[in-house]
Amino acid sequence: MATLRSNPGPPGNCTLLVTEPRCGETVRAELKKHGLRAKNLRPTSPPARARLPAFPVADTGSARMLREELLSACRGLAELIEAECLHVERVEPPVSYVLVGPVAIVSLDERVRGREREVAEQLLRIPGVRAVYGKEATEGEYRVQRLVHLAGERLEEVVYREHGLEIPIPLGRVYINPRLATEHMRVAEMTAADDTVLDMFAGWGGFPLVISKLGRARLVVANDANPWAIATLARALERNRGKLKTPIIPVMADAALLPELLRPVFTRIIMNLPHSSKQYLPAALKLCSPRGCTIHLYTVASSPEEAAEGITVGEVARIVKVLDYAPYKYIYRVDLKLEGREKNPSTIG
Are residues 189 and 314 located together in one domain of the fold? Predict the structure, then answer.
């Protein structure tokens, strides 16, 4: 995300890596990971297959090798094509921010305080940005962002787009982090066709909606205690009706009480409440299917070892660093595998 300014001069030849919309975030992340995205190039026209994500690459040979890895993940559509590109100057704002539809949200930390107006005016120059809000904190029972208006229009609701889905987001009412888009796709792609999925802290529905769009799982139950989040999910279900394949059942309840409301039928459980997921493990275990289940537990830690600390049930199959959270702190995903009938509620040592 940056302000783009074209340099004078005619376009030149370039190579684009083209994929399908559902794989766009995955390709973007892989190109960034391998340092292969040519950020100073912009295609002069879309690829022949209209509206497909197309990324200029910096090294055609390395991109060709990466393409082979992406073919299976993107179901055969990861093509390198020759095109014309403009050289552009990328002017990066001096702070990190996220885009939620036409809104840029910047954390009001020590880098910004005292120069909020200056930073906001820079962010308003990004194409498509109509408003800038500052995030003061993530707080309250529902862990929502406390936002203050800094510049541009005053918007109460925006349409956020992720993996071809459209979600109407009420600003400051539900937690949203566009940097989780790739993680939503990763978990969706791990989900089997015969899974029964429970998202204990679904929020506006990032995991359930992407799982449903891919047609994974037989059923997804999406729970959240925040009434705004459940209302947002309900509207997203209606808005994206033609794109969703797997049924999603919204539930609004305290996650600790779910064993009193639901039967133990779930083969995959998502627990994305990083600051307190572990305290809800006993409830999750009571909801696992008798034939076993996989639990994706998210937690804040400084190392993989700390992320797994205190978990004494099941097999820790994988620990993945998902996002940077703070200096020397990260959000990790701990994948737990539980065999059939292993539902010992003593999980935290």
Answer: yes
148: left (phi over 0), alpha (psi -120 to 50) or beta: beta
Q: What is the pLDDT of residues 95-128, one digit of tens each?
A: 678 999 999 999 887 777 788 888 999 899 888 9
Q: What is the C-alpha separation between 125 and 55, in angstroms, rounded?
A: 23
Domain of residue 123, residue span? 97-155
String of DSSP letters for 140-194: TTTTEEEEEEEEE---SEEEEEETTEEEEEETTTS---GGGHHHHHHHHHH--TT
Using a cut of 0.85, tell me whether the model's pTM lies above it.
no
Question: Looking at the domain assignment, is residue 348 inside a domain?
Answer: no
Convert the pLDDT of each residue in 213-262 to its tens digit.
999 999 999 999 999 999 999 999 999 999 999 999 999 999 999 999 99
Q: How far is CA 77 from CA 25, 36, 173, 178, 264, in A?
A: 14, 18, 37, 24, 38
- pLDDT, position 189: 95
Rounded Cα distance between 264 and 283, Å, is 10
